[in-house]
Amino acid sequence: MQPSTSGEPSDHEERTRQTALLVDRLHAIVEELELLHPGRKFPMDGHLVGSLAEAAAEAIFDITLKPPSNMGYDAISEPDHRAVEIKGTYGTGGVAIRPTSHAHASALIVLRLSRKSGEPHEIVYNGPFAVAAAAAGPVGSNGQARIGLNRLRVLNKSVDDVDRVRRRDLEASTALDVE
């Protein structure tokens, strides 16, 4: 949905703004829990981080999210209708991908999520899924292979613009542009 001609924010822009505010509150709650329980960490991982990454990717890229737990991919890119797998992390190490997902996803977006709404997310990788899958480590017993963020950054530098998922036209960028 495009911004209205009246200058009012679109539904997409409003959802993006509200999501950023709620995520700020979520991080504040985690910090409070860690203060109440010294030495205990309350990591945001698993499905929550995946869903946050999908919401962030929807704000940054011209994609339409599929229903949760869609087999093999998370979104469809516009206007070329490619299947897109989305991965996110708050960490600095890497992400796990299922190399068999390339049968379903043709593109991969990896985001390093920011903990603050005023700080942009880093686009670590935006390119062909098969390239990242080929560079990933061995497949573990869970069917996933790890690939480091630094390796993905190197791979990202060699991705042709035509192979990237198109970015939304945003007045205020929500992503650190490393492409």
Which tags fit this structure?
globular, two-stranded antiparallel ribbon, six-stranded mixed beta sheet, 179 residues, single chain
Structure description:
- The protein has 179 residues and is α/β, with parallel strands linked by helices.
- It has one domain (44-176).
- It has four helices and eight strands.
- The protein has helices at residues 11-36, 47-60, 129-135, 149-157; strands at residues 63-65, 75-77, 83-89, 94-97, 107-112, 121-128, 145-148, 175-176.
- The strands form two sheets. Strands 1-2-3-5-6-8 form a six-stranded mixed β-sheet.
- A hairpin with a 5-residue loop joins strand 2 (75-77) and strand 3.
- The longest helix has 26 residues, at 11-36.
- The chain starts with 10 loop residues before the first helix and ends with a strand.
SSE topology:
Layout: H1 11-36, H2 47-60, E1 63-65, E2 75-77, E3 83-89, E4 94-97, E5 107-112, E6 121-128, H3 129-135, E7 145-148, H4 149-157, E8 175-176
Parallel strand pairs: 3-5, 6-8
Antiparallel strand pairs: 1-2, 2-3, 4-7, 5-6
Helix pairs in contact: 1-2
